[in-house]
Amino acid sequence: MNQQHAPRFLVEQLFVPAPGEEFDFVAEDHRGALGIFSTAGSGKLPVQPDGWTKATRELIEYIHSMPSSGRAIGRSPRTTTGNYADFYRYSERGFYAFDWRLNNGPYERLSMPEVEAPISGLPSELRWVVVSLNWIEFNAMPNFSFDEVEAL
C-alpha cells in the first residue's frame, strides 16, 4: 500500500454494513479496476452516506446479471477447499474478488479477472456507491484491511 496517498480514517469512521450477515460492496482502485469485497458479516469499511447500503445491494444484483467477459485467474490457494464459485463468477464478469477472513480479517483476494470491467459498464445511477480505494492496486494486493490504514 502506498502510505503517502493513503487516506486516514478515525476508528469511529469505520463500520460493518450488515453485522452478522454477508454483505458485498464494490470498490475502485487507483487504475480504475473494480473489486467486490465480501464482508462475511464482520468486515469493515469507511462510513458511507444514507441510502448507500440499499443502492449497493441493487448494484450487486445488477452485477449478478452481467455476462461473463473472461476467466477467473490468479485463484488463491485458500479456494482449493470450500465453494468459492460466486467469487469466480465475479472475476469472470471483470471484478477482483475479495473475501473477509472470518473474525479478524483481512480482506483476501480470492480471484482476479482475465478482463477487467470498466466502471462505465455499470448503471450510471448506481456508480456513486463504488468505494474509492485510490491509493491501492488490486492486482498487486493479495490482502487488505482498513485497519492497516493509519488512524488520525
Question: If you had to describe this structure to a student in words, what would you say it looks like?
Answer:
This protein is of the alpha+beta class and 152 residues long. It has helices at 52-65, 85-92, and strands spanning 14-15, 24-29, 34-38, 45-46, 72-73, 96-100, 107-113, 131-133, 143-144. Strands 2, 3, 5, 6, 7, 8 and 9 form a seven-stranded mixed sheet that branches. A two-stranded antiparallel ribbon has the order 1-4. The chain starts with 13 loop residues before the first strand and ends in an 8-residue tail after the last strand.
Biggest β-sheet description: 7 strands, mixed
Radius of gyration: 14 Å
Average pLDDT level:
85
> What is the strand tally?
9
Topology (elements, then pairings):
Layout lengths: L13 E2 L8 E6 L4 E5 L6 E2 L5 H14 L6 E2 L11 H8 L3 E5 L6 E7 L17 E3 L9 E2 L8
Parallel strand pairs: 2-8, 3-6
Antiparallel strand pairs: 1-4, 2-3, 5-7, 6-7, 7-9
Summary keywords:
7-stranded mixed sheet, alpha+beta, 152 residues, 9 strands, disordered N terminus
In short:
By secondary structure, this protein is an alpha+beta fold. The protein is built from 2 helices and 9 strands. The protein is globular.
